Amino acid sequence: MQCQSIEELQLLVNKAKKYTDQGKVADYIPALKMANPDSLSIALYYPDGNCYSAGDVSENLTLQSISKVISLALALMDWGEDYVFDHVGQEPTGDPFNSIAKLEISKPSKPLNPMINAGALAVTHMIKGESVEERFQRLLTLIQKLANNSSIGYSREIARSEFETADLNRSLCYFLKQHGIINEEVEQLIDLYTRQCSIEMNCLDLSRIGCVLAFDGKDPLTEVQLIPANIARICKTFMVTCGMYNASGEFAIKVGIPAKSGVSGGILGTVPGRCGIGVYGPALDEKGNSVAGIQLLKMMSEKYMLSMF
Ligand code: DON
Asked: How many A from CA of 4 to the centre of ligand 1?
């Protein structure tokens, strides 16, 4: 079953909007505090180029943890599966996204998966290039191609704000460096990672990325294979098992689509073989996921039978 009209989608947004007051905008990155907690928008993108959206879809969001899906794809394209998974694991943690706890427990020490911060830092470290600038441009170019929008850039203000306050991420990096998972200057990696997290777009762009993933890495309109199918499959699998952090299990039961959240309030959704979804709702629950965004996806999953399970 497919969405038939914008009005239909707007009704669901209106219903889900009442949940925004149950959440709080992220404030541990000071610049994210500026977001409007009442915002809620969604875009659905179908392979024939049809798009339905509701809410203020022109509002920009920074990718934050959503970027981890694409940096993983790029690292896998750069190094291959064996190398990447020698440095980062494939298992969910059940812990918060910035937790340091399990790093000491796994032997040999490596982050449990690429979606938690420790794993994402290890992945970003693997992006090839001669300089931070070149590595960042390679990631940005891939994201622009996936969203079919060459004007996508990053928010310098949000990147700086995170760079100035990212001491927990720095501590994860130092731990990883001590254990040989990364071997570059921590400040350099944090610079690259904070720019990556600050890549800025709206939920329409996000839905186009979701659509490419839904069609195994191939842009359904141009038929260009932007990400190898096997790598797109790996990314979607991580989205199911770890994409919503320690809420991934409940999300799989209630919504049942591969999805990745970010502390900006964005959610990238991909419905295999059907469509891409972009959601933006900056009020977050205690696990760092968009509170109204999850409710909206739940309603949509029921209405359009989106669950893959
Ligand atoms: O590293 C951080 O803490 C942020 N730049 C991204 C974290 C994030 O988006 C977690 N998502 N729910």
From this structure: 34
Note whether residue 208 is domain-resident: no
Evaluate if pTM is beyond 0.95. Answer: yes
The reply to whether 75 and 187 lie within a common domain is: yes
Known catalytic residue at 193? yes
C-alpha span between 233 and 69 (Å, rounded): 11
- For ligand 1, which residues put their CB under 6 angstroms from it? 64-65, 97-98, 117, 162, 169, 197, 261-263, 288
52 marked ligand binding residue: no
- For 116, the domain range is 65-197
113 and 165 both lie in a single domain = yes
If you measure from the C-alpha of residue 228 to the centroid of ligand 1, how many angstroms do you get, rounded to a whole number?
26
Average pLDDT by stretches of 10, the chain with 309 residues: 85 97 96 96 96 94 98 98 96 84 80 95 98 98 98 98 97 95 97 98 98 98 97 98 94 98 98 98 96 98 95
Angstrom CA distances, 14 to 39, 61, 81, stand at 11, 20, 43
To 5 degrees, how large is the angle CA 303–CA 305–CA 308?
A: 150
Q: 19, 45, 57, 68: which one is catalytic?
A: 68
